[in-house]
Amino acid sequence: MERLFGVVKPLIGVVHMLALPGSASYDRETGMQRILAAARHDVQVFQDAGVDAVLFCNEGDLPYQVRVGMEQATAMSSVVGELRPDVHVPMGIDMLWDPMASLAVAKAVGARFVREVFVGVFESDMGQLRPDPGEAFSYRHSIGADDIAVFTNLTPEFASPLGTRTVADRAQGARFFGCDAVLISGPRAGSPFRFADLEEAKAAVPDMPVLANTGVRHDTAERILETADGIVVGTSLKVDGRTENRVDLDRARRMVEHVRHAREHHWEMIGARREAG
After folding, report:
1. Inter-residue contact 4 to 57 (CB < 8 Å)
2. Max Cα–Cα distance, the chain, nearest Å
3. Is the peptide bond before 63 cis (omega within 30 degrees of 0)?
4. Is the separation of the CB atoms in 94 and 56 below 8 Å?
5. How far apart are CA 60 and CA 35, in angstroms?
6. What's the confidence (pLDDT) of residue 172?
7. SS3 for 62-108, per residue?
8. What span, in angstroms and rounded, lies between the C-alpha atoms of 48 and 154?
9. CA dihedral of residues 265, 269, 274, 276 (deg, nearest 10)
10. What is the three-class DSSP state of 223?
11. Virtual torsion, Cα 39, 42, 48, 52, nearest 10 deg
């Protein structure tokens, strides 16, 4: 986390893009300018609030697809490329639910990390998720993107695992295959995750970053960060706490303050252990 973000326990703010060309929800009348303006607003608010990184995600592309179209990937690259000169924190990419497109866009725009499902097999509301980590990591290498960190979702939204492999099994598999961090999510965007899943993953891979990916609220952030190595937050930082709204500056600033307290507590605990040892 420190290598990527310069801090321990980073707060990653999610820029939920409006529907992109190629999506059934795309608004052809307002076009790309509205998408760009909304993303620009969220980036500026996040940076004014003091988040540690931003993650661009095509959240508005409803209904989601297991493989996104060329149009969506190109549009995402265009918007993030336009904003890039004004982004002063590390940035990541997530093209739902397509790890290959996520890597391609990340390479094109100079992102530092990607978030997607890289390991496991899941039944989902979008159909079966069957990522191929060998293919994905080979593709990352082929496009010269080995420096882009891979964050894989162990409990993806709108999905349930197939088979008998546990969260711990999938976490250990992700580490073995070379993923850089694992994520724990709830059943949908903005929904709390099972805390037992977070604890199970961290116990299974104590030397690997484990991040909370959905449902982090202002009143739970510090408790979550006692276990998690970072948080990815979108919905609770929006106006009225609704996923479809834009980011609210006051909500974002309050979350930054909670993360600062958690980080201070983390260093205090490390100092106490050193003195005791």
Report:
1. no
2. 65
3. yes
4. yes
5. 10
6. 98
7. CCCCCCCCHHHHHHHHHHHHHHHHHCCCCEEEECCCCHHHHHHHHHH
8. 31
9. 140
10. helix
11. -90
Tokens at 243, concatenated: 């996923």
Residue 43 tokens read as 């980036």
Q: Can you tell me the distance from the alpha carbon of 189 to that of 57, in angstroms, rounded to the nearest whole number?
A: 12
Alpha helices in the chain (DSSP H): 2-5, 31-49, 70-83, 99-109, 133-142, 167-177, 195-204, 221-224, 249-276
Tokens 């834009």, residue? 246
**122-172, pLDDT tens digit by residue?**
999 999 999 999 999 999 999 999 999 999 999 999 999 999 999 999 999
| Structure token pair of residue 166 | 């546990």
Please choose, from the candidates 137, 229, 230, 119, the residue with its C-alpha nearest in 3D space to the C-alpha of residue 174: 119
Residue linked to tokens 């607003």: 41
